[in-house]
């Protein structure tokens, strides 16, 4: 299926690993030119090379932390007029007990998962409106709709981001500028591999045993963590011409973990 976005330019903020990289790769395979960012340079350069070799697409890496105004300025200098904006980050740290979350933890979470995306949208949506085409996908978390104490630094700020984007999406949709949120559950990404490999080392088990234990404990109906490339394909679809009438949705893709009727 031709997604109808060849020749467009995408800014993928947080694209050197995991779901961001998989989304960048899926867009590149559609003939989209990419500007891809992350904080760590070495992994970013490796990801840019990997995506280029996979698709032949033009990929410009930019080292930038989009939680900061300086990082966002660097990103926008490299890509002032994206047609497509995909924003994500690493899963914020998990929290066992709400008593131990300090104000600085909230500030870090809000800067990365809420203010960063809001400011990138605020800086780019007018241009999309003027050009009559735009697609924005925020890659948030299923915890936005499925609150859990261990996800307090991830879920509440993404729920706020969903609220913001739904409100803004109604204003720009008539100009063919479409904003949606994808809310993932568990996927085999860089951070998850690091976390579950550490647990395996501590428990004398394997990564596979640790993830299987998690699936059992949380009763994930699909019976497995997701494949980032499958997620990336969904993201590309939400960036495609076919997303024209899909306005302000927050789609949970979590193997059935969250009970969402609508
Ligand atoms: N994977 C899962 O199982 C899972 C579960 C629930 C929710 N999610 C959500 O899915 C999203 C993606 O998670 P993931 O597992 O794909 O993460 P990941 O594997 O850690 O990849 C995150 C990417 O974003 C970059 N990044 C992180 N913070 C950044 C910042 N402030 N500025 C610029 N780049 C930044 C990282 O590179 P640098 O570190 O070099 O900056 C990396 O390229 C997150 O919103 C997460 O909460 C994931």
Low-confidence stretches: none
The CATH homologous superfamily is termed NAD(P)-binding Rossmann-like Domain
Shape: globular
Beta-strand percent range: 5-15%
Overview of the structural elements:
It is built from 8 helices and 7 strands. With 262 residues, the protein is an alpha/beta fold. It has one domain: 3-Layer(aba) Sandwich (Rossmann fold). Helix 1 packs parallel to helix 2 and helix 1 crosses helix 8. The chain is globular. The two termini are 27 Å apart.
Quick description:
The chain has about 260 residues and is α/β, with parallel strands linked by helices.
Topology:
Elements: E1 9-13, H1 18-29, E2 33-38, H2 41-55, E3 59-63, H3 69-78, E4 84-87, H4 103-131, E5 134-139, H5 155-172, E6 177-184, H6 190-203, H7 207-217, H8 228-238, E7 250-253
Parallel strand pairs: 1-2, 1-4, 2-3, 4-5, 5-6, 6-7
Helix pairs in contact: 1-2, 1-8, 4-5, 6-7
NADP nicotinamide-adenine-dinucleotide phosphate binds at residues 13-20, 37-40, 43, 65-67, 88-91, 112, 139-141, 154, 184-187, 189-192.
